[in-house]
Amino acid sequence: MKLDKSIGIPGHLLFGYFGVLIFMMGDGVEQAWLSPYLLDRGLDIQQSALLYTVYGVAIAVSSWFSGVLAESYGPQKVMMVGVMAYILGTVGFVGYGIPELDFSIMLVTYAFRGFGYPLFAYAFLVWITYASPKESLGRAVGWFWFVFTGGLNVLGAYYSSWAIIHLGYLETLWSSIFWVLIGASFVLFLKNETFPSSNGEGTWSKIRELSKGLTIIKEEPKVLLGGVIRVINTTAQFAFPVFLPLYMAEHGFTTKEWLQIWGGIFTSNIIFNLLFGFIGDFIGWRKTIMWFGGVGCGISTLLFYYGTQFHESGFWLVLFFGVLWGACLAGYVPLSALVPSLVKQNKGGAMAILNLGAGLPVFVGPILVGLLIGPIGHEGVVWVLSGLYFVSAILTKFLVLPKERSMELLKVET
Q1: Half-sphere exposure of 220 (CA within 13 A, CB side)
Q2: pLDDT at 91 over 70
């Protein structure tokens, strides 16, 4: 309870935060090098693109179901299913797919592996929304995104940069299972005391619960808006790596400098994931998302792109703009508090929409680049991404909480 009041973490879920951090570190070991490694092994670029597309679809589907499954069966069980999916997918992918470069096995097993982390991490996020007092919910989800991104994009990258040299590529992938199991072990310490139990419900009742992931849109259309805003939040994050390294190289940046800039972006991001959780609780969730997230990302996206043209090969200038963009990305953190608060019941259904929005950008970003880069070029794609952020700021204006809506009506009547 003391942690609730001081830093916003529900005390009885503290071990879960550690579990997500270590699990996501294991999940992130191959992010920076798997694609070029497979291309060196003999895959062509089309096969690599298809592999990541199928993986992204699996993540999106798993993200969608994580919310309602957590509400139907309890988050702890869903998290353990995520662990099993990750381990089985890894065994198939690393043990049978990669050694023989059997592409059909690689497609199936890598997709199966993709079901793992959304079921583990996003089911825990649903748990947080139920267990946290409303006044500290922004901080609680801020801490979640801090450990999620810190594990996936920072610790995973730093660990793999050491492991691929000292262990080898395949051995590094195998070692991910060890870290995932360590992360899962923390979940065993958690108690379900603050989560509504669905024990005793029949099969059909739970099937009806799954349908709430769709019916919630009709009951509260603003939840769908929240999902759209969540897609926009990280679409650029998955679009930039497709074309920005080539653009940066044209302006004199080395691969090492690009990786340092990308690492700086997400170091900034994890820090501000935490800060914007506190800021959102203080100044309001909508204001934080709209101004720091939407408007901030819209402006910093353009600065990040044009920074190389303002000052040729200006590493520190581009790094500064990148860090600014990474900070503004975190401005969307209160969305995980705002969207489930739009509904009194069925928070799992609301989180299902939001989690789907978190999963879709994995392949929406690359597809957007593939469709637009030919007709409008690098610059045009950046303007589209920037424009989407400004659109999200406008959409956020309509995410009014029931209590705020009542207060606005009362002002009108008086």
Answers
A1: 25
A2: yes
